[in-house]
Amino acid sequence: MSLFIARIKGFIQYKDLMGQLISRDLKLKYRRSVLGYLWSILNPLFIMIIMAIVFSQMFKRGNIPNYPVYLMSGQVIFNFMNLSTKSAIQSINGSAALLKKTYLPKYVFTVSKITSGLIDCIFSMGALLIVMIFTGGVFSWHLILFPLVLAQEFVFNLGLGMFLAATNVFFRDIQYIYNAITTAWMYLTPMFYPVEFLPESLRNIVVHCNPLYAYATQLRDLTLYNCLPDMSMVLYGVIDAILMLVLGVWVFLKTQNKFILYI
Amino acid sequence: MSDIAIDVKDVTIRFNLASEKIDNLKEYFIKLLKKQLLFQEFLAVKDASFQVKKGEAWALVGSNGSGKSTLLKAICGILKPYKGEIVVNGTVSPLLELGAGFDMNLTARENIFLNGTVLGHSKKYMQEHFDEIVEFSELQKFLDSPVKNFSSGMRARLGFAVATIVQPDILIVDEILAVGDYAFQQKCLKRMDEMMSGGTTLLFVSHSIDQVKNLCDHAVWINQGTVERIGEVEEVCDAYMETQISKAQ
Predict the structure, then answer these.
(1) Residue A98 with chain B: CB contacts under 8 Å
(2) What is the pLDDT of residues A147-197, one digit of tens each?
(3) Separation between Cα atoms, residue A104 and residue B78, nearest integer Å
(4) Could you report the predicted ipTM of this complex, rounded to two decimals?
(5) A176 contact partners, CB below 8 Å, separation of at least 6
(6) Backbone angles phi, psi at B198, to 5 degrees
(7) Nearest CB to B100; choose among A21, A102, A173
(8) Domain residue ranges of chain A, discontinuous segments joined by +
(9) Do A20 and B105 touch (CB under 8 A)?
(10) Closest approach of B198 to chain A, Cα-based (Å)
(11) How far apart are CA B221 and CA B233, in angstroms?
(12) Which of B57, B88, B143, B165 is the most buried (most CB within 10 A)?
């Protein structure tokens, strides 16, 4: 219990450091670019337009009412996971200079990477709104529930990020394997195709075991179908997030004292 | 009991000195199959014990690679000792490397805040002491240039200024004054002197025996991980210098 209180105190002491690390990530990302933060909205928008043009011809039969919004909602969810965990995987190795010279709680670096990813994700929600305006999407009050979906995914990403960051300290292969895994994950997440396109057996696995499907479906309920998210999807999403967080934090705490010998 | 600032009890620090670092799975499995996953241990510090009382100034002396910095890292909490225990009473300000927390792409102004929060200060605290830091570092003209364009001396100035704004209970200094011009070195030594007269305990590593003798009252001589001698700064340093000079000849 006293350890727990000490951890909370440490967290409060270093919350400003977390803020500084996040603002560093955001500042450096667009330094010396003319449009700056606008790129966080424009980038997903451009990619969406290209994908919408390519795929809208292919999946016409899928009876999706507003294909660009369908695609974009999936993309927001997938990119948040993809980009934030890929930067989190390097968070401990990349901070070697600091960790070797000062005492700091090590999770600060991983948490700040995932939080930068969340901020980027909120920018791309802006892009999603632009798409909704131009495709005549319906704005209903359900839309304001989107933070609940992102919160679930944030917890999931945090767990995954901590797991990856800790294991990558000992085996640098993880970052390369992970590239292949995310590619497979992208195709197994119904992002640009409807879930009905998958064969029965595979569909069951994706629906029940892929948390990104749960988050994307919830977001689509809000943006596309204007209804409350399906309760079973919320349940899957929350359970997956908590399990992942517990696993990630456990592995991280278990190994963190050995980081210094390997970075 | 409470007048002890740092209590180092039978501390041993172990590293794995395996022929090469195994940090990928392929090598791990090959070595596993060949049964080469031996743990080649290396004790950087062996059974070191000493006590530093509050307000004292201690020096760690010893040749390169003798374990001085490793011991300092363990006292700062960066490394965990393999055996033994280290008890530290009070706040520690570690100056193991000036500007370790600098991000080369950020400007000096942004780095002051980043480095300050790395040391555990709040953003508000840094805003209050910003002018003081800038004044001490004498880098007013370069506040908005990226730190990657700074010389090592300029980085050291900025790092020292940020690290010493607060008066810590324990100040740990590891050979950081090697860069920087004479005037700045004197300025830093003066600031450390001020802190010590304010009650700060100092732990100092330097290869400049003159600086050590000037600043410290006690010394620990570490030789290849073991404590060779503990005592008054004069006698320990003289004994240490004798072996150094005889090695050089």
Answers:
(1) 100-101, 118
(2) 999 999 999 999 999 999 999 998 888 999 999 999 999 999 998 888 888
(3) 8
(4) 0.79
(5) none
(6) -85, 5
(7) A102
(8) 13-262
(9) no
(10) 24
(11) 10
(12) B57
